[in-house]
Structures are given as C-alpha cells and as structure tokens.
Amino acid sequence: MYVAVKGGERAIENAHAWLAEERRGDPSVAELTLDQIREQLKLAVNRVMAEGSLFDPDLAALAIKQARGDLIEAIFLIRAYRTTLPRFGMSLPVDTGAMACIRRISATFKDAPGGQVLGPTFDYTHRLLDFKLAADGVVPPAAEAPPRSAPMPRVSGFLDREGLIQDEPESDAVPPDLTRQPMELPGTRALRLQALTRGDEGFVLGMAYSTQRGYGRNHPFVGELRIGMVAVEMDIPELGFAIEIGEIEVTECETVNQFTGSKSEPPQFTRGYGLVMGQTERKAISMALVDRALRWKELGEDNVGAPAQDEEFVLYHSDNIQATGFLEHIKLPHYVDFQSELELVRKLRREASGAQAEAAE
Amino acid sequence: MTDQAYNFAYLDEQTKRMIRRAILKGVAIPGYQVPFASREMPMPYGWGTGGVQVSAATLTPEDTFKVIDQGADDTTNAVSIRKFFERTAGVATTEETARATVIQTRHRIPEEPLTEEQVLVYQVPIPEPLRFLEPSEIETRKMHALEEYGLMHVKLYEDIARHGQIATSYAYPVKVEGRYVMDPSPIPKFDNPKMSDNPAIQLFGAGREQRIYALPPYTQVVSLDFEDHPFDPSKADAPCDLCGAEDSYLDEVIIDDAGGRMFVCSDTDYCRARRASGHVGAKGVAEDAA
Prior knowledge:
By secondary structure, chain A is α+β, with helices and mostly antiparallel strands. Chain A has 13 helices and four strands. Chain A folds into three domains: 9-82, no CATH class; 96-121 and 145-168 and 176-318, no CATH class; 335-360.
C-alpha cells in the first residue's frame, strides 16, 4: 500500500550533513584555509566579489570554501549576505585616473605618458602545464624596480583633446541602484553599467563575443586597460569634508570604437566602458563591448536586431543568481502541474485517435 | 546559530515597509502587477523568494503559519521555507489549513474553503500572463495599460482551432474584476474557481521578476473562455484512493513496475482530515486499524 511520503525534514538534514562531509573531502589532506584561498585563488575571489557586488576578499574566500569552489554558489552566498548589511551612505565617485596601476596597457597607441605596464598577466605565457607547481611551487622572486611616480593620464583624454572622440558629458546625478529599486526599462546607461558589472562573466563575455562576430558589430579597440588600487572617499556630514575610507582594486577598460557617423552624430570615435572590482580583465573588456553595443539609440545607430543591442534581453538575463535559481527550480516538485498536463495530453490523444478512426471509416 | 542577528522574519523593517506598500497598492488595484525592489534572499530565486518576502512582510508574532508545495506540507521546499520562518520569526506553524492565519503556497489552493481571517500567499515564477506571447516587459506593460488583450484571446482561439479545446491546464489566465488579465501562478486550472469571491486576502509574490499583485477578499476572478467553449476546471476522473474524496485535486502515483497507479489527494491535510473522520478510499485502510 502506498504510504504518503513523509520525512522530508530528516532527509534534508541528512543531505546537508553529507554535503559538509563532502566539502571537507579526505580528512588526511590538510584543510584549506581562507588565507590560502584569498592569496592563491585571487582571481576566483575577485570574480566572487565583482558579481557578488561586495568588496571583501575574506568573505569571498569563505564563500568559495563553503561553496566547494562553485563560484556561482559562492556569489549567491555573498549576495544573500550583502542584502542584510545596512547602508551608511554613498561614496564619492572613485577617480580611476589617479589609480595606482599594477597594469596599464593601450592597444591604440604604441606609447603614452605613463607608459605601457604589463603587470601580472597571463598574456604571452605559453599555456603549458607547469608540473613544477605540482611539486614544490617555490617561486623565485620577480625582478623589482622603483615604483613609478609619473602620472598615468587616461588614453581617451588624448583623443578627447583633438575632438576625435565622442564627448562624455559629466553628470552629478545620483545613479539608480538596481539592488534597491525594481529595474524599470528602458533604463539609463548608469543602470546598464551596474547590471553589467555584476552580471555573469560568461554571459557578458558571450554577448561581447557575439558583437565581434557580427551581431551588432562595433569595431572595438582597447583604448586602455588599467588595473590597480583606487581610493574610496566618503563625505562625512559631521566633518563637512570627504575622507578616504579605504582602497579597492578595480579593472577599468575603455574601448575606442570606429564610428562613421549617423543621422545625429558626426564621424568620430565612440566609447564603451567597463569597470569591475578586482583584477577581472576579461569581464571589464566584455562589459565595455556590450556597453557600446547597447548605446546604439543614443548614438543614432540602426538597431540591427542583434541580441547585444537589446537592453531588455541583456539586462534581464545577465544576472547569474537569478538565472541559476530559476533554472534549477525545475528540480522542485511539479507534479501538480504535470498531472494536469498528463490529463490534457491523454484527452488530446483520445480525441486525435478518435478523429483518425473516423477518417479511416 | 546567529538567528538573533536578524530582524523578525529576516527582512529589516524598511524593506518590509517597502513590500507592504507594494502589497497595499496591489490590493488597491486588483490584478495589477506592482514593481517592488525584491531583495536577494538566502534561498534561490525561483524557489519562492517572492512568496517568502510577502510572507515576511505579512507575518506578525501572533500568526500561525502554514506552507504547502504541490498541496503538501512535507515536500522538501515547503519544509525548508517553514523552517526558515520558524528560525527567523519564531512563529507558530501548523499543517492544518483551518488553524493557519497565513498560508504560503506553491502550485495549489487548499481544498478547505478559506476564511476572512486568513491570508493566502502565492509563489509566482512568471507573473506576466502575456509573457509567452510577448517576451518584452516594456510591451506587455503597455498592453495591460491599454487593456489590449486581443493577443491572449487569439492564442486561446488558436488552441481551440488546433486541438478542439484550450490547451492550457495550469497557470490558466484569469481576468480580475473585468479589468486586468492576471496569471494565477501555476496552479492547476481546477483551482481557478476558488480564487473568485474568496473571503481570504490573496497575495502574489514574484521575487526574481520583482512583482507583487493581489486579490482583496471577495474579488471577482473569471477564467478566460468563450461562450461556446466554456472554462472547464478538470481533474483526474477518479476518487482519492486513500480517503475516497471525489471533489479534491488528485496526484497520480505509480506504485509498481507494471505501471500500476493510484490517485491520492494532492492536499495532504485535506486527505488526512478526511481519513481521521472515518473516510476510507479503495486502497486505504481505516485510521484506527493503521
């Protein structure tokens, strides 16, 4: 006889206990420490901070450990924690022009004031497995040079001075915050940039790549890519002036895009912009390409119907926490709906086979 | 546990206030989808975050809370949500429909009629009834504003032309007080008539899609149909094999390798109460003998 399924509560508890055991793995292997994750899996930590929208390398490391290395799960942990934090206020805009760069390259000029600085990059490494890392991993110290003191002005500024690049008007408007207000479309560029910077790296990369392959092509050059520390400043009402409350690492990418002009704009270079927390180069470049593609209306371009030009499509599908939750919810029981579908399909089949029998007569 | 670190029912008071304002607006405009600043909850989007936020904003310490998924109190996600509020709100919980003051549900409306003392909170995955006809939110909001529902009627008509009947068996669209076409959430169409003229407040929360909508008590809710193809709230043509109920929505359960099956009430509390009062179905056993 069928006994109604009971015991869901105990099954859940047991499943979670098993998960904890699996997370630890073989206990004869030393346990990972958060310091190790933070220091040695830094790019994973960066991605979790960027898409979790919370700059805290220690918490990100904890989330990665708790999520067993599943970065989307780790981002989810950070997001869920983040919503419970009180808001003290807003920082001033960070000045990326004054960034203490560990990397700064331009693909549009051979050299520029401040120079080309490669920094710690995978570029030009040969992707050969380094079996030495499997053995001891002792790293000889890298060569050192005195820190550069020369300023590194933004490359786009040089084009700006000549009037060759589309003007980016300054604004002191408070940007919308999609974590505190429901997303209403059509949105502003500030809203789009916020969605893109916390959007899924894979999604934003795929969208950017699609523009390069012809779905809304916009001929990008990396005008400048810079990675480094910026100061975060905040106005303190009691003091009446802004003070520095900390430093964060960010990656900024400005693309320079060919543009032959439109009904409303003269021929000039146009811009795409990416700014992402941490060293997250692929994401920042992708973001800049998608930003540029989404600017078609403002620049008087044609909408060629490319996915990357469709603000609603991009913004509603870029968030991996929303996407993964909804995707995975189909694991939940649906037997009520399935039952009603079963009955419908049976009924339709009965009628269809009845109709065939009639036709055969 | 650091549960004391969280506010009553998890959300901070400002957030609850924001959600309550959206609920009030929804109650004032029955069937209209109110945008709200949905928060990231500690459970995934698509797993009832909208319903959880509405429940969190609705619950008071005196409430008695019931959670069902597919009509059952002990499905895993219902257990998880119930435990969440036991931990964060410390409210009393129950499996008995009649004892609950707030009921959060996924995919069903309880069989037992609700009262004016109760609030029914639905979890909604896709709040927009026009979504699968028009993917753009900008467009569908316009269509609602202009009461432009021709597309939906064409879809239902095409169903009839192709299949001889409307081929929607759950999340069957309804019209509220002759104005807004509304998604009833993925309840089987069998449940649709229960929405209309219901004494309880019915609240709908869609977390991922950032929408709340509502039906105040005694609101007229009509399932869309045509005069010559009237709405038919169908269910499996069988009584419950455990309690013998003929009027409840049934789940079909496969019981052996030969494809043998039985039908049981999807509303587990309804089935339990009937069996407790002596009803026995074809494959059930009398309660005292069990």
